[in-house]
Every structure is written in C-alpha cells, then in structure tokens.
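Example record used in the benchmark description.
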Amino acid sequence: MNAIYYIGLDIHKKTIAYCIKKIDGTIVSQGSVAAERRALSKWMSELPGPWHGAMEATIFTGWVYDFLKPHAVELKVAHPAMLKAITVAKKKNDRADAEKIADLLRVNLLPECHMMPEELRELRRVLRYRNMVVNTAVKMKNKMSGLLMEVGALYDKKRLHGKKYFGTLLERVEDVPDSVKGLLKLSRNGFEMFDGIQKKLVAALRKNKMIKERVERLMSIPGVGEIMALTWVLEIGDVTRFSSSRQAISYCGLCSGQHESAGKEHRGPISKKRNKHLQSKLIEAAKLAPHWNEQLAVLHEKESARGNRNRATLAVARKLVEYMLAVDRRKTDFQWLKEAA
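Model output (structure tokens):
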C-alpha cells in the first residue's frame, strides 16, 4: 500500500514554497518552485506518491488550486485570518509557513475556507470587474459636476447626465474656459464608455444558463434587483454551507464583533471580517427595498422610530439575507407567508 504524503504550500507571486511530510511528521522534502504551470508540472512528476495538499487563500491561490487539484487525493485552502491566529510565531519565513500548513493538514486541524467551483469564480470575476467599472463611471459623473462648480456654471443636477441636456449645456454655458469644456467632453465620453461596458457585462451574466434560474428565483423577492441577485449567487456559491441565517448574516458583515470574557460581553462596531462585496450591495439594496416591499417598509419604520436610521438599514439588510437564504434553499419563488399557508 502506497504511503500518503502531506504537502503544505506557501504561495507568492513568483515562487511557491513547499514542505512534504509523512503521516508521522517526518520531513521528506522542502524547497521552492517557480509559480509557473510548466515548473509545477515538473515538480508534481517528481513527488514520491499520492498526496494531500493545502495552501493559504491569497490572490494567487485560484489558478494554482485549479491546476493542482486533478493531481491530488485532496486539496484544501486555508482561511488566512484563522491560520495566522493558530500559527503565530516569532520565526516567520516561507519554508516555516509551508511546514506549519503541512502539519495542520496532517493532524486535521487546518482552518479550511470554502472554495467555489472554477466556473462560478470566473463569473464572479466578471461581476466584480463590472462593479469596478461602475465605480469608475460614477467618478466621471462626479468629475463633471465638480468641473462645472469650479467655474461657477449653473446647471440642473438631475438632468446633467442626460445626453441631450449635456450637449445643450455646453453650447449655452457662459464664461467657461475652453480647457474646462474639453475636460467635460472627455469626462462625458469616459462615462458613456464605462456605462456601456457594464451593461454588456451584466447582459452576459444574465444569459448564463448556470445561474439564470437561480437569479430569477431571487428576483421574485420584492426589493431584490438583478445586481443584488447576481451578487448573492456569485459571492455565496453553495448556500448549504450556511447552517443558519445567523451564519449567513455574519458572513455578509451585518452584525457586530463579539468580545466575551469572565462573563462580561462587549459588542463592538460592525465586523470588518466579512465579504465586502456582499455587504456593500446589501446596504445599497436595504436603502431602496422598503419602497418595493411592504414588510420591509414596516420593519424599517419600526427600527427608525428608535432613533437610528443606520440600524434600521441594517435590520432591513438582515431580513433580505433571510429571504434570499430561504428562497435559495427551497429552490422556489418567494411567497408571502399568508399566501403559502
């Protein structure tokens, strides 16, 4: 029977440090390999036998994971924050980090994090790129307003970004330097370009058969739009990884940090250990959802009466998480409780 080997990988941009151990902790080999597919193929061909592997989640982890996974008995990805808490030490270098990961894997104490399928990660990359493009388009819009304010030009804020009004404004505006008019035109062209790109990206995601049905189910919830549904699907992935709505709410960053010691409990501000992409979209959706959802409007009004509108927004965002989690688990369209009874 072939021995099983345990490999810890410390991944960086140009190199990957590795440590190969037996089940009893004996080091078989240590070293580094170039972070390239050809070098990794050669390295794998020289491995002594079947192996389990583990690596820390970084920006470079995705392609390495996809490349190595078909060749491993099992490949895991470790949660960076939890890994640091476990392995904190005075001595830190790539070889030592790889050895610690191998040891945690070997004794089954690795703090594993969820790794989405490659197909979903590809779509998630597109969505995140779209969000970056939207943020850039917003900067272009703000720059146009800023340029007009700098030279004291009068304009209608609500109509400024309409194509017809903007063209008319440039013709009739007085005492505006030609350089500013040129910058306004450049900003307008930039805004139109970025806006067109984001629409194409959303259209491509909308037509994808892998997620289309799931997104449409989520959009049956009053107050959940297309971008919110897409964000939920592509950031959450497999919804069964959350055993309760409290876990999902915590993952979305909609609850405060907890510190408890000697029977004393202290609640801090909203935790920064969260999925920031989901958190931002949920907060945006929570501000608009009460206009479309009667139950959320009542909840928002009730929480606002206590004197804190931010907490009211958070309460609505948490309720949206509960709605989407329920729809995703049941794989049915949203129904009000009285209709489902």
